[in-house]
Structures are given as C-alpha cells and as structure tokens.
Amino acid sequence: MTEKDLEYFKNWFSDFTKSFYSSNEEDQKNIMLKVDHTRNVCKNIIEITNDLSLDDNDKRLAETLALFHDVGRFPQYAKYKTFRDADSINHGLLGTKTLIHSDVLGQIPKDEQDLIKQVVKFHCALTIPKSINNKTLFFLKMIRDADKLDIWRVFIVFYEAPEEERASATAHNKPDTPEYSKDILLRINDRKIASYSKVKNINDFKLMKLSWVYDLHFNGSFRLLKERDYIKSLAQKLPQTNDILKAVAEINKYISERLQSVQTK
Ligand SMILES: [Fe+2]
How far is residue 218's CA from residue 136's CA, in Å, rounded to a whole number? Predict the structure, then answer.
C-alpha cells in the first residue's frame, strides 16, 4: 500500500461519511460522533504504532484499519437509527460488506484487502476467532486497543454532558438504578473482562467498560490510558462503595504492573 492509496482512502471516507450528513440535528450529532470517533481512533493507532518497529507499509495499513473500522456505523445508523448492534445489525460485518460493495480497496494488494476485511469484520467481536492468522491477529489486537481507548473517551464525554446534549445513539436502554452486579465485580477482581450479557443497569455498563482494561494488548495503549486518566474519570461516575473502590484499585494495580513490566524489560 502506498501513501497515495492511504490519501485516496481518506478522501473516500470523507465523501462517504458526508453522504450521511443530515439536516436533522439529532441524526447529524450521531453521525458526527462516529466521524470524530474515527479521527480519534486514527490518532490512537498512530500513537500505538510509534512504540513498535513497524515498516511504513504496516503503519499505513494500521491507519487504514482505524479509518475503516467503523465504516459500517454509517449505513447502520441510516437504516436503524441506533448504534446498538443487538437491536440492529453487527456493524463489523456491515462494515466489511460496505468495503466490498464499494470496491474502495480494489487498488491495493489482495492480501492487504483480505486483512482489512477480516479486521473490520471482527474488530467488535466479543472474542477473537481462533482461525485468524498471526499477522491479521496482530492488527486486530491493535485496532481493538485503539478503538477501546476512544470508546472510553466517548462514554466519559457522554456521562459528563447535560442530558439534552448527549448523542442519543450512544445511550444504552438500561435503567439508571443504584445497584450493581457483584458478578461483574468478581470478574474485575479476577482480571477478566465482563460480558454485556451481565449488564442490567448503567452502573453495570460502566463496570463492564472498566473491565475492558484486561483486553488491552499494546504497551502504548496502557501508556495512553494512564496519561488520559480514563479509569479515574469513569470510576468517579460509579457509587463509591468499598467493593467498587476495591475493584478499581485492582484495575489500577494491573495497569501499573503492565507499565512496570515495560520499564524493566
Ligand atoms: Fe466499531
């Protein structure tokens, strides 16, 4: 893939997303949320690759993945007016279909096309399929890190905004009740990610997002997470009970250990 290919992809993405712009304020807010998210995921992935010894081709490939990872969000919203996959369609799969249908990747080598299609398809899967080859897996982990980092930001902004300014399609249709799941706390204390199936209210949803720290792979991701204080910002939006504080302390301990292990290598 050449620098010119990447430029072409950026222009294509810009035209593609503009075709979904709307005069309806609510719809436009939701579309721009994903345009901004994509821009931030691109920045995150560049930061992550800067820590790694990748050649220029692989750096461009990583940036292309960030650019296209959520391409399915635009037709998803156009048709269903939501970003909740469970209530609409798997946006990873729809993204890959969108790339195939538009033939935007047609100019680059076939193996790179296949890698991009696979990574876009599985970037949001709960678990990574075992059948994926090592190179694809490497990039899949990278986009999942870059994506998670920005999803934390999106939700922190969402919870900090006054209700009328929130992008509605980000909201999850769960009640904002005071209790929280002990099962999710157990998962966090066991250093395991929690599943969305356990989420019964907004507190559980925030705890589930915190548990994602155990599915981060790259050193740069832990560095960015720490620098941006996302865990603290999200944790502050939960009830400050002893068991929640203990779970948050476990997460912070894990982050420190990961950063420490890099420094001592
Ligand atoms: Fe996504």
Answer: 15
